[in-house]
C-alpha cells in the first residue's frame, strides 16, 4: 500500500485541475496528469516488478535512498512525453532530454535563458513572426541553443515538442488552453507550465515540483527566530525582494556583528559607511562578485564579501554550486543566533540559512502518537495504521525519546499483525519492514508553538 497526505497532494499542480475541460486531459489517454501522479505510477510499477522477482521484497527497503532519484526522472520523462503527445506532436518526442541538454549548453561562453511555446502548429494558437524553412529538431542541441538566443519578452521559439518551427507569440494571450511554456532560467535549469501554473521544475536533470521562491511569512518568521525578534524583518524582506529581481544571483549575509565582521573579512571585502540600500544601489553593488553584508536592521556594512569557512564532513550539497556551499560552510562556523544568509540564485529562487523547520503544536504531535498506538492495537486496521504511520513519520523530527519508542513499538506491532494475518497455505507479504525512529539531535523546544 502506498499512501500520501491528501492535503499536500491536492496542493500540487495537475493538468486535470488546471486545464480547461474543452481540451483533452492526459489521464484519459493513459499518461499521468501531474508529476506526482507520474512518480507514484512509476514507483508502483517498480515495486510490482520487485515483488514478482522475490518472495521477500528486500530491495524495496533501499528504494528511497538509492533508486528514488532515477524513478523520479523516469516519471518526469513520461509526464512530459504525455504532454507532447496530447498537446503537440501526436507521435511524441523526447522533450525532457532535449531541454536537459540545451539548458546545460552555454552560448559563446555565457549561460543562456529563453522561452519555448509548446502547442499544435496548425491549431491557430500562434502568430508566426519568423518561419523556419527547415525546422530545428529539438535533439540538435547546438542549433536549438542558438535559436533560443533569439527569444525575448515578446518572441518565443515555437515547437510541437519534436521540432522548433519558428519564432512567434500567442495569437490571443487570454486563450492559453493547450499551450505550454517551457522556460530555460539558468545553467541546467528549466521549467514547464501552462496558463501561468508551473507544473515541473528541473535542475541539472533532477525534476521536482515547482516551489515558490519563498513566502514573506516564512522569511519574517525566520528573521524573528534567528535574531530573537530584534531584526527589522520588513526592511530585510524589501532588500531580499529587490535582490531576487536582479539578473544574476547574489547573497545577503545578515550578521549581528556586521561592523566587526566587515573589518575581519577585509581586504577581501569592501567595507562602507553603514546605510540602507535602494534598488538602484543594490543592482550596482551586486554586479561584482561576493556577498553583501548587512546588519539585522538592514544597514549595509560591506560589499563584495568573500565568505570564509572550513569544510565539514557531511555538510554540503554536491548538486548545488560554489555560492551555496561556501555559504553553508560559513554559516556552519558562525555562532548560533548571529547569522542569517539569503541565497538568491540566477532564476530568482531564494534559499535561507538556517533553513528552519516549521513550528508545530505539542498537542498535534501527541495526538499523532496516540492515533498510531490506537491503530496498531489488535485487531489492526492496516489502512488506518498506514495513514497513522505516515503522519507520525512526517513529524519524526519533533518526537521525544519516549514518543520515538512508542512509535517503534507500534510499527513492530503492525508488522507482527501482518505476519499473523497470513493463514497457513496462503501467500502474501509477511513483513514490509520499517526504519526505527530516533531522536533528532537538532530538535529544540523552540520548534514548538506552545
Your description of this structure?
The protein is built from 14 helices and 14 strands. It has 450 residues and is α+β, with helices and mostly antiparallel strands. The chain has four domains: 6-87, no CATH class; 95-208, YojJ-like (1, CATH 3.40.1700; 216-353, DNA integrity scanning protein, DisA, N-terminal domain (YojJ-like (1, 3-Layer(aba) Sandwich), CATH 3.40.1700; 362-447. β13 (339-344) and β14 (350-353) form a beta hairpin. α5 (95-103) crosses α6 (141-148) and α12 packs antiparallel against α13.
Task: List the SSEs and their pairings.
Layout: H1 6-11, H2 15-18, H3 35-53, H4 63-87, H5 95-103, E1 114-118, E2 126-137, H6 141-148, E3 156-159, E4 163-170, E5 180-186, E6 189-194, E7 197-203, E8 206-208, H7 216-226, H8 233-244, E9 250-255, H9 258-265, E10 270-275, H10 279-285, E11 291-294, E12 300-305, H11 322-333, E13 339-344, E14 350-353, H12 362-375, H13 382-394, H14 401-420
Parallel strand pairs: 1-3, 9-11
Antiparallel strand pairs: 1-5, 2-4, 3-4, 5-6, 6-7, 7-8, 9-13, 10-12, 11-12, 13-14
Helix pairs in contact: 3-4, 5-6, 12-13, 12-14, 13-14
